[in-house]
Amino acid sequence: MKQRDQWTSKLGFVLAAAGSAIGLGAIWKFPYMAGMNGGSVFVILFIISTFAIGLPILLAEFVIGRMGQSDAITSLKRLAPGRKWHLAGWLGLAMSFIILSFYSVVGGWILSYLVRALFFGLDVTDHGALFDSIISNPFEVLIAQAMFMILTIGIVQSGIKGGIERASRWMMPLLFIFFIILAIRSLTLVGAMEGVRFLFVPDWSQLTGSTVLLALGQAFFSLSVGVTAMMTYASYLPKEESLGQSAVNVSILNIVISLLAGLVIFPAVFALGHSPAEGPGLIFVILPAIFSQIPLGNVFMIIFFILMLFATLTSSIAMLEIVVSSGIRKKHHQRRKASWIFGLLIFVVGIPSALSFGVLADVQIFGGTVFDFADLLTSRIGMPIGALIVSLFAGFVLTKAQTDDELRMNPFMNGLWKFLVRFAAPIAIIVIFFVWIVEL
């Protein structure tokens, strides 16, 4: 029987895990959330929350995954036999399936923009109208979504070493290089320093309870905790590698990419007279409009959407890997077949989300489109519940001897982590969850 794959190096694992976390959350959501919620104050709260809440839960998933040495469902069964904790694995599986079903729709939008920028240019007068025409065209969105899923399947079917690790090794460094190039170009615009001040000089009048909660939520979700992706990735990690150092590295990379995204966007936004509080359209509407106003704008736009594609793919392959890993269990020879079967099923389930802004625009669920409902179901309900279960499992079910053996940190750091996953993280999750429920 073929043995379970392992990462060939800690670098490969860290880059893949960081890639899972660094997706649309860091590049698309972080800038517009910061823009709408006080800029630098939101950034400071986001960084604090990442290390105080997100990092401990991320480390909890790493511990459970490497101890269990299998998919999340099997790992939780092994560590708590005869109990119901493995239901968290099933929840993570379901959430990953649903997330990728609508995440692939956004991946398709990015492909559409990239193709247009490469072959036709995006020199239009109304970028809002262009965005609306793309997402409402049923033929285009379905073709683009299908192409994005084919890219994802092609990587996952090749396994950990030949697919996910190899892709992450070149996509993540290119992600940094492209971001640095774009940030330098953005910072050279006249008036760019206003955007830098907005991002890094705090205006404490913007500090509100809502800003604290939103920053905490952004930190929590940007690390991809709560869907067992990190648990699955850690199951392929050799015992000699440091989980604590890996978790810190992933968290730092996530923060750095988020800040680089801010340095790309906000200096350009302020330099060209736009509002930082434009909301979700900042990437697809405002940014192309900005690029069209600067020299070599189409070149930089192409670089940006390639970057966006890389970031989205690194997250999508993590979502599909959760489903495939759970589906094949020990039948490693079935990876290729399972990747295509589950990938195609996810594409079919995502069709209503893809059509949410066109032929199915009038279909409303809880006041939103099918796409909005899938997002709400996962990010505001499923992920918080999943992360809460993981945190409580690591804090109260795993023994001190078990966690100390996996973490191999000094007694103070072990004790601090245990306190955070037992008390601080669960309380924060519950607060976020109920605030969001009230907002529904």
TrEMBL record:
The keyword Transmembrane helix applies. The keyword Transport applies. It is a multi-pass membrane protein. It is found in: Membrane. Pfam families: SNF. The chain crosses the membrane at residues 12-30, 42-64, 85-111, 141-160, 172-192, 212-236, 248-272, 299-320, 340-361, 381-398, 419-438. Keywords: Membrane, Transmembrane, Transmembrane helix, Transport. InterPro entries: Na/ntran_symport, SNS_sf, YocR/YhdH-like. GO terms for cellular component: membrane. It comes from the Bacteria. NCBIfam families: Na_transp. This is Sodium:neurotransmitter symporter family protein. It comes from Filibacter tadaridae. The lineage of its organism: Bacteria, Bacillati, Bacillota, Bacilli, Bacillales.
